[in-house]
Design goal:
- The structure is a homodimer of 353-residue chains.
- With 353 residues, chain A is α+β, with helices and mostly antiparallel strands.
- In chain A, strands 1-2-3-10-4-5-6 form a seven-stranded mixed beta sheet, with helices on both faces.
- Chains A and B meet through strand 3, strand 6, helix 7, helix 8 and helix 9 of A and strand 3, strand 6, helix 7 and helix 8 of B.
Chain lengths: 353, 353
């Protein structure tokens, strides 16, 4: 996909400070501004720029309007050693999920694994950004998320939408770079669809249905039409099975979802961390994953113009490059933030280079 | 897919007894013959007939040749309350996984969740068949499996095979029928490919690569070529991410996989059971899943000739029909079993109707 217009480059830290200052000025308390800011800039650096700073203007809107709770803690509904449930009380989802990954990582190191279901989280942005918090400690993490107020994805063979893109992410340590899996269980996301629609472009395949259920590559069928599940017209029962899995883990275990009449933006989240050390051992785990990573890296490309990439390799390379050389956010995103900076009297960062 | 030639109908119990007698005569001890037989016939009844009785002749071969261990118990390598590892010692995989689902279900009811990784299991056949053991108790189950000796599936954009079809199954209770998700993370399986090849048929889409990495709908490209991951040429990075997840959960956590030089048939398994009662409650869980099931059932079909089906609905209907009316196995499967029955001096069942 075209990354959109980009002109000015900024240091990673400068962008994170800017985002953090905006969130502080809007009213987020404690470590919430710094955590949310760091993870949004991480998402941009990883190339997931529909789920990075582009979300910040909406977050600021929601803080000001009271739709995102700015202060306090989640309510702990269940606190077992390996099984927890939190009510997120519409607190910032990025902060909640980062906190859940950290707690689950700590608990997994005592019990082997720990799962945390969160209800009523605000939006959680880019799932891949959280995975490093686990993989850097040698842990495997699984994160899934659904928003019960959203229906954009048709079930296989269905004519209209039922599910949301229901993303799932998995972090897998190796001896070298971790494997970072992060994908929606629909072929494409609502964010990407909106962007293509704005830019007058098409999907690269029949990724959607129009309002009459006819397959289409036209992003303007949304809203009104439906996105197709992973596997598309050909084998979309697999994507529908994944959507079911995500919705059960997130809404079923948190006890909050589509069956409830009132929803805000955000939704239900499932976080699970496993510690290989308490199964057969970290050395044994990475002996296998490293072998597979090396074998994957040695697979020749089908088309020399399309290199074979390990899941997360591009995202990690982007993150490292951004941390050392800075990054160039989209100009439309920076313009939207500049309007907020003026309103909240926050100084905009100085581009470099 | 064409279900193949079928003529004679048998009672479910008669087929299960027949399979059990064959396995007993071949040397399996204790409850192994009855458990393996019941689950293979369940797979046939569910419509997964490449992974039901069709596997039994190979199992009998392997018992006689000593490749499937006929007697004894798995070695317990790790036994934590919520995290276990077993060495399956090439015992019957169907029996091992059924046992693992039962133990994980018991542990999950105390701790909220329990995961068991199994190394060196023999073949585990149809994953969906195990799920009812959890969902009938109101529990959610996740089962994944990989065989480190097999490489049939290319990673996305790759020219040759690295992974196996790496199946994953998820059982989700509702107030009515459970949702039974069961799919390979490649578009199709090795078993289905072999069957289409024997029958001179084609894949319904570009589901494979030939030995030069060219997309193909011809099942004779296997062996030598590669199957494509879920998402295919269009969005196969998602299937590759799933394959990585399955291989890490199964081979990484069990500490046995592709990095090991010697393999038998079968492989590494991951079983996890979650008890919604120890998260926000079973009533809360099924309140959500039942709402989604009802909404899914109400989605109109895109094409009136292809009804919208909930995951597992057809399998469950087939199982119930088979249990009340009997089932008609493929004649090639029954012929292969008849040869074994003669050799092992086991009486063949009487067809009914």
């Amino acid at each position: 996909m075209d990354p959109g217009p980009r002109v000015l480059s900024y240091a990673f830290g400068a962008l994170a400070s800017y985002a953090s200052s905006l969130l502080t000025a809007a009213g987020l308390d404690g470590d919430k501004p710094a955590v949310v800011a760091r993870l949004l800039v991480t998402a941009d650096a990883m190339g997931h720029d529909t789920h990075g700073l582009a979300q910040l203007p909406d977050y600021l809107d929601d803080i000001v309007a009271g739709r995102m709770r700015a202060t306090g803690e989640p309510e702990v509904l269940v606190d077992r050693p390996s099984a927890c449930v939190w009510d997120g009380r519409t607190l910032p989802g990025v902060w909640l999920v980062d906190r859940a990954v950290r707690l689950a990582a700590t608990r997994a190191q005592t019990h082997g694994l720990c799962a945390i279901a969160i209800r009523r989280s605000h939006h959680i942005a880019c799932l891949a950004a959280y995975l490093l918090g686990a993989t850097e400690q040698g842990l495997m993490a699984i994160i899934a998320c659904s928003d019960p107020s959203e229906a954009q994805v048709a079930p296989h063979d269905g004519k209209h939408a039922l599910f949301m893109p229901d993303p799932i992410a998995v972090g897998i340590p190796t001896k070298k770079n971790p494997i970072l899996v992060d994908f929606s269980t629909s072929i494409t996301t609502a964010g990407m669809t909106a962007r293509l629609r704005r830019e007058g472009r098409r999907f690269p395949g029949l990724w959607a249905l129009d309002a009459e259920g006819r397959p289409s590559d036209d992003p303007t069928v949304m809203p009104g039409g439906a996105l197709l599940p992973v596997g598309g017209l050909d084998h979309g029962h697999k994507g529908t099975g994944l959507a079911w899995t995500v919705e059960a883990l997130t809404q079923g275990l948190s006890g909050y979802g589509r069956a409830d009449p009132e929803h805000g933006w955000g939704g239900s989240v499932f976080v699970q961390v496993l510690d290989p050390a308490l199964f057969t051992g970290r050395a044994e785990f990475v002996r296998q994953t490293n072998w597979i990573a090396d074998a994957h890296g040695a697979v020749l490309p089908r088309d020399p113009r399309r290199p074979v990439r390990l899941p997360g390799a591009q995202a990690l390379a982007g993150l490292r490059r951004a941390q050392s050389e800075g990054l160039t956010p989209r100009t439309d995103t920076m313009a939207a933030l500049a309007a907020w900076a003026q309103r909240l009297r926050v100084a905009a960062p100085t581009p470099h280079g």
